[in-house]
TrEMBL record:
FMN binds at residues 80-82, 109, 131, 159, 235, 257, 290-294, 313-314. The active site is at 259 (proton acceptor). Belongs to the FMN-dependent alpha-hydroxy acid dehydrogenase family. InterPro entries: Aldolase_TIM, Alpha-hydoxy_acid_DH_FMN, FMN-dep_DH, FMN_HAD. It comes from Derxia gummosa DSM 723. Glyoxylate binds at residues 27, 133, 259, 262. Its cofactor is FMN. This is Alpha-hydroxy acid oxidase. The lineage of its organism: Bacteria, Pseudomonadati, Pseudomonadota, Betaproteobacteria, Burkholderiales. Residues 1-364 form the FMN hydroxy acid dehydrogenase domain. GO terms for molecular function: FMN binding; oxidoreductase activity. Its EC number is 1.-.-.-. Keywords: Flavoprotein, FMN, Oxidoreductase. GO terms for cellular component: cytoplasm.
Length: 367
């Protein structure tokens, strides 16, 4: 049931505290460290305003786009979000159903509670990509890629910004502990996952000789590309040079992201990094964006600054906790309608009409 009184996607954030225990909410909402980057992600949208334009005919308007060979009816994807059983017993199978129903491409996490095959079944006629964390052993990485291929995932999204992650301070303070029944459904042991923080031998650094020992390098990415028939994307790009390297090394596309502020605390806001990345990869390279999208207007700004489409992370979790698949579908519908209204008011009939000329910097005099 969708509770009455939900007027926009973000209303689920207000409601979800009645559905999620406080320590779990702290884990889900938290960023890394002192939450600087998480908060910057949201604040960055206030650096831009949108020009209203008058008397434009948008009656032929639509939000369709072609993305990596797929025809999508709108530019909202569901970002990979781990351990969704924390907020709903149906976990990722609920989000997968919502994605299929609303025509949103689903990016399923390596660290999903449900196995990727169950997610695929729930998403049967939907479009889905698989977010791959490199595992310490290549055979395990390869096995995940094979399973994703077999289950109808159409791309692999390698997340590279989380080889090491400090725990969220707010989650620590709230006493959050991952429940025993919340294992990663795709993996034999959680110790093999990127969320773990492995021990190092005495006298060695838990970071350099511990967590980073298993971190991938370019050779691993090249290996993965040669191993799979699926296009390989990279998620977690912020620096323009990293984006240019991805393009030069044959990566299919990149996702500008700072993991919702959960990786390097102090990293730039995703939106602030976006124009530089677009400039570095050129106009024709597939480029997605996430970090702080809470409304259709936010999506409009990201599209104007160079993204082809956007992913939503926390919004889907809030809605999942409140109303399962129905809630997630509702969020996608609300976002799409807000984007359409924004496009119409800005005089943009199609996504191709949205560009930097649609925005004005909020803190500078208007030209
Ligand atoms: C994430 N994110 C993430 N990313 C990824 O590549 N693999 C994963 O397993 C997860 N897990 C995860 C769990 C939780 C609780 C959150 C909040 C986020 C990051 C996610 O894909 C995305 O980059 C951000 O969530 C986008 O920011 P917003 O939309 O949450 O502001």
């Amino acid at each position: 049931q969708i509770p009455p009184g939900i007027a926009c996607a973000r209303d689920y954030e207000l409601l979800c505290e009645h559905f999620i225990p406080a320590p779990t909410l702290a884990y889900l909402a938290g960023g890394a460290g002192h939450d600087r980057t998480r908060d910057a992600n949201l604040a960055a949208f206030d650096d831009w305003t949108i020009w209203p334009r008058l008397l434009r005919d948008v009656t032929h308007g639509h939000t369709r786009l072609a993305l990596a060979g797929a025809e999508l009816s709108h530019p909202f994807l569901l970002a990979p979000v781990a351990f969704q059983k924390l907020v709903h017993p149906g976990a990722e199978t609920e989000t997968a159903r919502a994605a299929a129903a609303l025509g949103a491409c689903l990016v399923a996490s390596t660290l999903s509670s449900a196995p990727l095959e169950d997610i695929a079944t729930a998403n049967a006629d939907g479009r889905r990509w698989f977010q791959l964390y490199f595992q310490p052993e290549r055979a395990a990485t390869q096995a995940l890629a094979r399973r994703a291929e077999a289950a109808g995932y159409e791309a692999l999204v390698v997340t590279l910004d989380a080889a090491i992650r400090l725990p969220s301070l707010s989650a620590l303070r709230a006493g959050f502990v991952m429940p025993a029944d919340c294992a990663a459904g795709n993996l034999q042991t959680l110790a093999a996952s990127a969320e773990a923080f492995p021990a190092a031998p005495p006298g060695q650094s838990r970071i350099f000789q511990g967590a980073m020992r298993a971190a991938p390098g370019w050779a691993d990415l090249d290996w993965l590309r040669s191993e799979t028939r699926l296009p390989v994307w990279v998620k977690g790009v912020l620096h323009p040079d990293d984006a240019a390297d991805c393009r030069a090394r044959g990566i299919a596309g990149v996702i500008v992201s700072n993991h919702g502020g959960r990786a390097l605390d102090g990293a730039p806001a995703s939106l602030a990094a976006l124009p530089g990345v677009r400039a570095a990869v050129g106009a024709d390279y597939p480029l997605l964006f996430d970090g702080g999208i809470r409304s259709g207007g936010d999506a409009f700004k990201a599209l104007a600054l160079g993204a082809n489409a956007v992913l939503v992370g926390r919004l889907q979790v809030w809605a999942l906790s409140v109303a399962g698949a129905l809630g997630v579908a509702h969020v996608l519908k609300l976002l799409r309608e807000e984007l359409e209204a924004c496009m119409a008011q800005a005089g943009c009939a199609t996504l191709a009409d949205i560009g930097p000329h649609c925005l004005a910097a909020a803190h500078e005099p208007l030209a």
